[in-house]
Amino acid sequence: xxxxxxxxxxxxxxxxxxxxxxxxxxxxxxxxxxxxxxxxxxxxxxxxxxxxxxxxxxxxxxxxxxxxxxxxxxxxxxxxxxxxxxxxxxxxxxxxxxxxxxxxxxxxxxxxxxxxxxxxxxxxxxxxxxxxxxxxxxxxxxxxxxxxxxxxxxxxxxxxxxxxxxxxxxxxxxxxxxxxxxxxxxxxxxxxxxxxx
Length: 197
Description:
Blueprint: H1 3-18, H2 41-54, E1 60-65, H3 72-86, E2 89-94, H4 98-106, E3 115-118, H5 121-126, H6 128-137, E4 143-144, H7 147-152, E5 156-159, E6 164-168, H8 169-174, H9 181-186, E7 189-191
Parallel strand pairs: 1-2, 1-3, 4-5, 6-7
Antiparallel strand pairs: 5-6
């Protein structure tokens, strides 16, 4: 297995372990455990494609990367390649801690970006609820690989083995988005309620 793929798989397990709440402290290294396909770079790329399908007018995407995440470089490269093909401008920001994330969101100007994309398994593992809440407060759609993000208020999730698409229709309505029927039919689950407060 490629070293980058192994690191992504380990980090994907950490997402599953931590998604129920924020950790007591920042965790520099994800936990070890059995592999998972949820964090493969190809799935990160596919999530960006789904963002474009859900928001055809999407042009500017905030991409959050973590410089100490060993899986980050492979993910960012995959996302950049897809963005170039889709004609998307990526506003890349590097963050590592909760303070970094909160400060970064506080500096966003209205209309500067149209969606939030997490290009780091470590960030997703350690700050799942924080990222979803901050994006929701600013009416910015966000996505992940784990359906519990969608249940909490993310626009959609795409991941797993085999990959499954979960769409939060309530979140879409709140953002003024109309989910195409083709995507509704492809989704394994449609959530029609708002995320928990």
